[in-house]
Amino acid sequence: MDRSLLITGGSRGIGAATALRAARAGWHVAVNYVRDAASADAVVAQVQALGRQAVALPGDVADEAQVLAMFQRLDAALPPLAGLVNNAGVVDVAARVDEMAAARVQRMLAVNVLGSFLCAREAVRRMSTAHGGRGGAIVNLSSAAARLGSPGQYVDYAAAKGAVDTFTLGLAREVAAEGIRVNAVRPGIIDTDIHASGGQPDRAARLAAQVPMQRPGQADEVAATIVWLLSDDASYTTGAIVDVSGGR
Ligand code: NAP
Q1: CA of 222 to the centre of ligand 1 (A)
Q2: I need a labelling partner for 121 at 20 to 30 A (CA). Which of 23, 135, 168, 208 fits?
Q3: 32 lines ligand 1 (CB under 6 A)
Q4: What's the 47 CA to ligand 1 centre distance in angstroms?
Q5: pLDDT category, 225, cuts 50, 70, 90?
């Protein structure tokens, strides 16, 4: 297998776990990041130690010029693209809707929604048989928040992930006859840095009792589903939204 996978936000958390699982499954991996070059470089070294090619690619997925530059570097660095994981995502501090500044909501939609659109667009241009490509698979990271709404926490984030769900359904049907499968994973409460970035470093442990399985999930448990959706084992699965949330 000589095919490459781009993981946005691959430097930490669910993205980094996905990079390692994908490498074990035979993928060459491009690890996108926006800030933390050292973590991205560490993931690249781990993928290379597994015998696959890897490259770290800086770029803010919410910035079209940076996305275009990232894909150009990817084209030059690795074998042809056959997979994309739209994993880069952000939350913000807990707030009610009646407290939210426009800039906050715009950032939430820009990174979580626009970023997924821009990266998927570039991937489809490369992978679609309608564009001369050889097909591929896209996995979008949604969230259980899309179902729950996250009142009093981050309704803006939840709404952005609701848009990711609908984007998944529409794009899946749009490119289904062009060799590309598009699916989404909706993680529940997963033990990563994202909670600290929203000012709640203890959130995963604190909310564990609300999870039917009584524990937060691990990044690798989400990565397992992502890598399955990318694989030929999921060859008839498209437009699916898979909950990985311990029953929550
Ligand atoms: P995380 O640990 O906070 O890691 C976020 C990753 O995204 C980092 O690699 C970060 O890069 C990158 N990133 C952030 N903004 C970016 C941007 N504008 N452009 C490019 N990369 C960017 O997050 P996580 O918990 O692994 O979450 C991964 C995905 O799962 C997100 O979409 C999140 O919404 C979703 N999710 C997570 C949970 C959870 O409980 N953890 C639950 C449901 C859904 P740097 O290292 O350079 O900062």
Answers
A1: 13
A2: 23
A3: yes
A4: 19
A5: very high
Mutate to test the pocket of ligand 1, among 8, 29, 87 (most ligand atoms within 8 A of CB): 87
- State pTM to two decimals: 0.99
**pLDDT at residue 92 is higher than 70:** yes
Q: What is the pLDDT of residue 144?
A: 98
Residue 1: per-residue pLDDT? 67
Mean pLDDT score of the chain: 98
Which fold, 4-243? Rossmann fold (3.40.50)
Question: Tokens 């809707």, residue?
Answer: 97
Span 87-104, mean pLDDT? 98
Find the 13 Cα to ligand 1 centroid distance in Å: 7
Q: Is 33 in the pocket of ligand 1 (CB under 6 A)?
A: yes
